[in-house]
Automatic annotation (TrEMBL):
UniProt-listed GO biological process terms: osmosensory signaling via phosphorelay pathway
Keyword terms, alphabetized: Kinase, Phosphoprotein, Transferase
Top enzyme class: transferase
EC number(s) from the headed UniProt entry: 2.7.13.3
Histidine kinase domain sequence ranges: 22-234
Name recorded for this polypeptide: histidine kinase
PROSITE patterns for this protein: HIS_KIN
Reaction catalysis annotation: ATP + protein L-histidine = ADP + protein N-phospho-L-histidine
Residues in the signal sequence: none
Domain of life of the native organism: Bacteria
GO molecular function ontology, one term from the record: phosphorelay sensor kinase activity
Taxonomic path: Bacteria, Pseudomonadati, Pseudomonadota, Alphaproteobacteria, Hyphomicrobiales
Amino acid sequence: MSSEQPAASSENEERIRRFLAIASHDLQSPLRHIAMYAEILLDDLADRLDGDQLKSLQTILHKAETAQRLTKALMGFASSAPQVTATEIDLDGLVREIWVDMASEVAASGATLQHDSLPTIISDAAIVRIALSNVIANALAYRSASPPVVTIEAEQDSADVTIRISDNGPGIDPTHQDKIFDAFWKRPQDGRPAGPGLGLTAAREMLRALGGGIRLERSNAGGSRFAIRLPSPRT
């Protein structure tokens, strides 16, 4: 039995990589064209648009460029040769950007975001964005009757940066907690069809490429808390 488990794990990992490679590659062309046409429209029509129209077009361009960066990061991971680019990341700014990107989900759920001043860190911005986005999106999707409250905290020492994301949701059933990072598994939710889940799996694998990780610290009737660990660069 023990000899079968590593083989199954390796096969599953390869399946994930193939899926990410195909999906990321196929998304690159339409995303590139969306960004290109948004730039053309901005150049040709900027002086004829009102403030809201101009902002909408700029948002389309920004979201397309962000999606391009994320799919490139996924393609690097899928090729077993992730291109890790360490840059300064303003966590305050990144969290606000992610929250704005999820404006429709925030409005539909009445969610609020809470966080004190978050530090500036050194890491790969695309990978950190993917990890944070997946955890926050799950907090908005798997909510209780009360509007979601997402709380983000971060602490940094000489070895690691730890980002904790907490919510006030119903918690994760104990029978499901060991499955949430499994590829293509999605937590059942009343009233919604079950579909393939890959977000947390991809986040975990890409964080590993940085030498970091993600784990569920707690989950009960008061909500869940995830911890993302990132190595601090050596000076």
